[in-house]
Design a protein that fits this description.
By secondary structure, this protein is α/β, with parallel strands linked by helices. The protein has a five-stranded mixed β-sheet, with helices on both faces. Helix 1 packs parallel to helix 2. The longest helix is centred in the middle third of the chain and has 16 residues.
Length: about 130
């Protein structure tokens, strides 16, 4: 399993070349954590260059997502194959992980600040007569 990384406009992009086997999961998770710690970016994108996402790969992505969230960083995933994106979305349902088809879209989204929702003012109710 080969893991590479680069900085794209200040966003750390980590690329997993190939799937993660269960025997590699701990090593991949440790390598991801070390790369993030060494760069301390404000956002991370994990690019999965494989057509199949194993349970071990999904686990490694979710662990990195939790760790980045605890450190105040956003993490997004990129999968170019539609079936891999569907699996990532299904496996991470509710975690807040954003999944993209293209690396450029993920990096751009990571650079775009997200604003908190604007509260809706309460509507006045007429007083009883």
């Amino acid at each position: 399993m080969v893991l590479t990384h680069t900085l794209d406009r200040g966003v750390l992009v980590v690329t997993l070349h190939g799937d993660v086997m269960i025997s590699d999961r701990a090593t991949v998770s440790q390598q991801l954590a070390e790369v993030v710690r060494s760069h301390l970016p404000r956002a991370v994108v994990i690019e999965l260059r494989t057509s199949v996402i194993s349970a071990a790969a999904l686990s490694a992505v979710l662990r990195a997502h939790r760790q980045c969230g605890q450190a105040g960083m956003t993490l997004s995933a990129v999968a170019t194959v539609a079936s891999a994106r569907r699996l990532l979305k299904a496996g991470t349902d509710g975690s807040g992980l954003r999944v993209f088809a293209r690396r450029a879209d993920a990096v751009t989204a990571a650079l775009t600040p997200t604003l908190p929702p604007t509260p809706t003012p309460p509507t006045a109710t007429p007083a009883p007569a």
